[in-house]
Design brief:
Chain lengths: 53, 225
């Protein structure tokens, strides 16, 4: 196939890079949510320890 | 434990990914044959190489787990395979986009490189149901490690088999002649590959840190109960 014109090729290139960035952002967001939950659970545990004292 | 060195590693990854993007769009020349579409190469190929490397690394960590019976190596192996599967999804999608732009088809079934990567990807998709169908943690680690080793050994074998195949549609990148990449393109590719490797290691450490913190929290809660 001959090379695509820049405007048409740009859509494919943008699509590929958006897929890559989206995958990484979603992955990092999931890990960040997990870390936030761990942080909340740690606070709860801290409260529990304080109450027991 | 796993978070050691995560901050400088993250910074290095951000710099490397930024440099790779800059080189791809402002330094690397347009391909004479494919034109602008060839820019997909700089994200697709490093992602594929790092994903396959991650699968092999997962197998090596599985070997260490079986030798040492240290469950932390099973966790390392699991996270490496998990991340490689995520990158594998990216490889398949970006590859399809590139195929559509270059060949006019989203997928070409008689192309050995595409089909062999899909076979490897589907093989590793079996890892999750296998791993999570076993409740006993020790047995889970042992069986997962055996799978990681067997599948990890299959990856280079598969790579060699594809190399020996005769029908070539998919371009060769890594060859003894350097894949005929001009200097600017080769430099850009190598920086993109280094950035992808750093990104993989950073995300691997990040997930390990999160999983380790969750496990410690669980143990603490059990002690306090």
């Amino acid at each position: 196939m001959p090379a695509l014109p820049l405007d048409e090729a740009g859509k494919y290139v943008a699509g590929a890079y958006v897929v890559f960035v989206a995958l990484i952002v979603i992955y990092v967001a999931i890990i960040a949510a997990k870390i936030a939950r761990i942080d909340r659970d740690l606070e709860d545990l801290n409260e529990l320890v304080k109450e027991r004292r | 434990m796993y978070s050691k060195g995560l901050k400088p590693l993250s910074s290095a990854t951000v710099v490397a990914v930024g440099a790779a993007f800059a080189l791809v769009f402002f330094y690397a020349p347009l391909d004479a044959d494919q034109g602008f579409v060839q820019k997909i190469f700089y994200v697709h190929v490093p992602m594929a190489i790092v994903a396959l490397g991650g699968f092999v690394a997962g197998g090596v960590m599985g070997v260490i787990n079986l030798r040492t019976r240290d469950p932390s190596w099973d966790l390392r192996s699991y996270v490496a395979i998990h991340l490689s599967i995520i990158l594998g999804v990216g490889v398949l999608i970006t590859g399809s986009i590139w195929a559509r732009a270059s060949w006019g088809h989203w997928w070409v079934w008689d192309e050995p490189v595409l089909v062999s990567f899909l076979v490897v990807f589907l093989l590793y998709c079996v890892y999750y149901p296998l791993r999570f169908s076993i409740e006993d943690p020790e047995r889970q680690a042992r069986v997962s490690s055996v799978f990681a080793i067997a599948a990890g050994a299959f990856v280079p074998l598969n790579f060699m088999a594809v190399r020996l195949a005769e029908a070539y549609t998919h371009p060769r990148v890594l060859s003894q002649t350097g894949g005929d990449l001009p200097g600017e393109m080769r430099l850009t590719f190598l920086v993109a590959l280094a950035a992808m490797t750093l990104l993989f290691i950073t995300l691997w450490k990040l997930e390990l840190t999160s999983k380790n913190a969750a496990a410690q929290l669980k143990r603490l809660r059990a002690k306090l109960a």
